[in-house]
Amino acid sequence: MKALLLLPLFLLLHGRSQPDQLNLAKANPPEKNPGKELFDSEELLEIKLTGNVRDAFADRSEKPKYFPFSVYYQAEGAEQKVPVRVKTRGHFRKSKATCNYPPLLLNFTNKDQAPSSLFYNRDKVKLVMPCRSDEYVVKEYLVYKMYNLITPRSFKARLTKVSFDDSLRKKITGPFYAILLEEEESMAKRNKMTQVEPKMLRPHQAETEPFLTMAMFQYMIGNTDWSTQYRQNIKFLVSHPNDLPVTVPYDFDHAGIVNAPYARPAEELLMSSVTQRRYRGYCMTDLKPFEPIIAKFNKLKDEFYKLFTSCAYLDAKEISKAIKYLDDFYETINNPKKFERDFSYPCDKDGTGNIVIRGLREGDD
């Protein structure tokens, strides 16, 4: 279970970030000709990774090493081959006790491929692997697509069917569904912004509207596994050094709408399961700032639902469960009493609305 820290409420409600409190990430280099864009297509991408699969998967240490691989895919009627270095990444899902397959990092270089390559101008691309069953990967992919509908300041994702060919042992693993995730630098550059890494950022120190939108989205999908204070499954962007950071969420496998078999809410939250929703924003005595956000979510409702109802990679039972879960969300935000009850929860001094998750940052490399 991930470690948690209970912080006094006043620490969450006061203070604004100063420029010298933020470590500005290195400026992005000028854009090169990217060739075909990996994340612009909605089509399922089929790839094969060939290399020392067993040893690469077995290296789940704190500092895993890279292994030389080749990635194969079909383009223009022919098989394409691109050299790549592969290593395990993450923390929680990297554990053998949690997942059969560890998350991977794919490290590409332009000198090893032609400009027309699908992976040209890509650097370190995360590959989200199935933990117990790949249906949960598909649902997590759809969560990324939901947030893409809300804002371009979000990570693009590409659903992938991947197989592994152990070149030393002549053994094939897969195929199964996985997710390729856009690099942080690429996402920032696409939005003409820069990534920042605050040492400790209280919720009020983030830009208000994007934070409230993100917090409502986390409530919508039933995700409590995040915090701004410890950069838990959150990235931060700014357009200028003196701006308040914009919050960008990622890593949704503990969300209730995904309902992965290993996912459990933190014990300190006093929740029965991850399918129980808990709003984890900050205390607001006036909830009017949510009105345009609710309107936006209502406007996007049909598009959210269509992501699931039109998905060819989920069975009818899983689609039905997702739709019901979204129905419950919309019933709450459009019922003034229920909305006030749930979104005022951080103001309850006797509740668990101010517990801050400090635990394992799944997306770290």
Task: Summarize this entry quickly.
The chain has 365 residues and is α+β, with helices and mostly antiparallel strands. The protein has nine helices and twelve strands. The strands form three sheets. A seven-stranded mixed beta barrel has the order 2-3-4-5-6-8-7. It has a three-stranded antiparallel beta sheet with strand order 9-10-11. A two-stranded antiparallel ribbon has the order 1-12.
How far apart, in Å, are the first and last alpha carbons?
Answer: 20 Å
Q: The biggest beta sheet, please? A: 7 strands, mixed, barrel
Spatial order of the strands in the main sheet? Answer: 2-3-4-5-6-8-7
Arithmetic mean pLDDT: 88
Structure description:
There is one protein chain. The chain is 25% helix and 21% strand. Residues 1-35 and 360-365 have low confidence and may be disordered. The strands form 3 sheets. It has a 7-stranded mixed β-barrel. The chain has a 3-stranded antiparallel beta sheet with strand order 9-10-11. It has 9 helices and 12 strands. 41% of the residues are buried. The protein is an alpha+beta fold and 365 residues long.
Summarize this structure as a short list of keywords or feature phrases.
single chain; alpha+beta; 25% helix; 21% strand; disordered C terminus
Topology:
Blueprint lengths: L3 E3 L2 H5 L31 E7 L1 H6 L8 E9 L2 E11 L15 E4 L16 E5 L5 H17 L6 E10 L4 E11 L2 H7 L3 E3 L11 H14 L12 E5 L7 E4 L41 H9 L1 H9 L6 H18 L2 H8 L11 E3 L8
Helix pairs in contact: 3-7, 7-8
